[in-house]
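Homework help board

Subject: predicted structure for assignment chain

Our instructor gave us this sequence and asked us to write out the predicted structure in token form, then describe one feature. I got the tokens but I'm not sure how to describe them. Can anyone check?
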Amino acid sequence: MAKHLQDTTALSNGVNMPWVGLGVFKVEEGAELVQAVKTALVHGYRSIDTAAIYGNEAGVGQGIREALAGNTLTREELFITSKVWNADLGYESTLAAYEESLNKLELEYLDLYLIHWPVAGKFKEAWRALETLYKQGRVKAIGVSNFQIHHLQELMKDAEIKPMVNQVELHPNLVQQELLEFCQAEGIQLEAWSPLMQGQLLEQPVLQAIAARHGKSVAQVILRWDLQRGIVTIPKSTNAQRIAENASLFDFSLSDAEMEQIAALDIGQRVGPDPDNFDF
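My token output:
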């Protein structure tokens, strides 16, 4: 179990991925984004998660460059993720999308590249492109996002390389236990986006009671719950205090009873689109 912000999990190919990262979904280009990335890296985060559709890869890249310029950090110590958008799913178009993401980020390579959504009839060709990038050594690890069990099964029928990561919406109202067990059995690392349910769980009484018992925030309790389930987590924040707070997860642990109390909050509720029913 992770004991430090820079602790990692070994993906199926041996690449080390930090257990905790910074998400930048819905953070617009500009000074606030650049500062958030810099703050996270200075506070000890090593993982930043973006995507082509977020429209903020250039700012993420600038934040990375400014953080690297200011101290002894090196690019090799970082773990940078981006994702190919639905409109670019296809063999050649996915290869081109990867180049475009690298250009915007001004990076030589990505640590992880994901298919953002399982668009029917398109994700297999995109996966072939990711396999090509991986075999060429252009990306350290490849994976998917928002894939349900049946999407993973469909992909793996023809894949030469199994996805190393599956990044999905996951929080106490959407526990995803069956998907977690499937991914663990297949050697696919599960990763949670919107782990705090975009702030909607911060007033939850059960979580507040557990947090009070530990002298922690509700956000810290939820993120700790992720880690104890073996799930990589990427809370989003641009607030320096919360970025630091979200990383303070390693000086307490939840009991089995508390873990069960949190799991019991599962109502299958999503804040994002349903991977079986989206139209974009």
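Reply (TA_rk): Your tokens look well-formed. For the description, you could write something like this. The chain is about 40% helix and 15% strand. That's the kind of observation they're looking for.
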